[in-house]
Amino acid sequence: MSYLSEGNSVETVNARMSAASDARLRRVMASLVTHLHGFIKDVELTEAEWETAIGFLTRTGQMCGDARQEFILLSDALGVSMLVDAINHRAPEGATDSTVFGPFHVEGAPELPMGTCISLDGKGEICLYQGHVLDLDGKPIADALVDVWSDNADGFYDVQQPDLQPKWNNRGVFRTGPDGSYAFRGIKPVSYPIPDDGPVGQMLGALGRHPWRPAHMHFRVTAPGHARLITHIFVGGDSYLTSDAVFGVKASLIADFLPVHSPTEQWRTDFNFVLRPTTNPA
Ligand code: BEZ
Ligand code: FE
């Protein structure tokens, strides 16, 4: 047994774990301690910096509540959420890529007839979203639930402005028919800043980073026998595509929004979702 020193800190801390504790927990914690101590030694962390870090994490926790999850926002802004997503959703060839879930999904949005417009506040330009939900063999998936949500034309989700926006504004659930098709109308979304009035916003400011996300429509697609898909369609041409504050963009998720002349919409975008089976562990 030895007392902790700069040279032996990792081994000393990790040696305290009981062999009787959970093996996966031991593996994760031993790696965490190794990298955390390595990082502190690498930058030779000062006591003032340590205090700043403790204050930052404390304020991050204090900001968390039912309506705000500042720790997930921190994970998003550091690229951690997308890295965890990448490791856990290595989509097989042909399957649609996933991306970050974000804090603005609300469970229980109304299931609507195909083609319904989900924009209830009369703001913004309307777009027809349509396509198919398919399996890896290209076969249509019937009875898939396509749960969609977006900001409004002012760049806010309904839950951010409960007194200003109608309930369920820019949200809805659509169930595919036998041909796997879906269609709905919503706004052509606009880019918006992630909530930046807390510690994460301060961190972005201190690093000279902006808080903006490129315009996108969120999708959660579920179907029996298939892995749940959480993704976005990004609006092609958006100026924030290459600097998304949460690193959520993938080239395969950038869609063309085509201008159309129709009494019901000004834009159209066609996008198919390809789900992988639940049996595929990738
Ligand atoms: C969103 O797209 O809704 C979102 C994602 C991550 C952080 C904040 C917002
Ligand atoms: Fe979003």
Automatic annotation (TrEMBL):
Classification via Pfam families: Dioxygenase_C, Dioxygenase_N
Keywords linked to the UniProt accession: Dioxygenase, Iron, Metal-binding, Oxidoreductase, Plasmid
Segments forming domain Intradiol ring-cleavage dioxygenases: 122-277
GO biological process, one term: catechol-containing compound metabolic process
GO molecular function terms listed in the Swiss-Prot or TrEMBL record: catechol 1,2-dioxygenase activity; ferric iron binding
Cofactor(s) annotated in UniProt: Fe(3+)
Superkingdom assignment: Bacteria
CDD domains named among the record's database cross-references: 1_2-HQD (cd03461)
SUPFAM superfamilies: Aromatic compound dioxygenase
Ranges where the Catechol dioxygenase N-terminal domain occurs: 22-96
Gene3D superfamilies membership: Aromatic compound dioxygenase
Keyword Ribosomal protein found: no
Family as reported in the entry's similarity comment: Belongs to the intradiol ring-cleavage dioxygenase family.
Name assigned to this protein: Intradiol ring-cleavage dioxygenase
Provenance organism: Gemmobacter fulvus
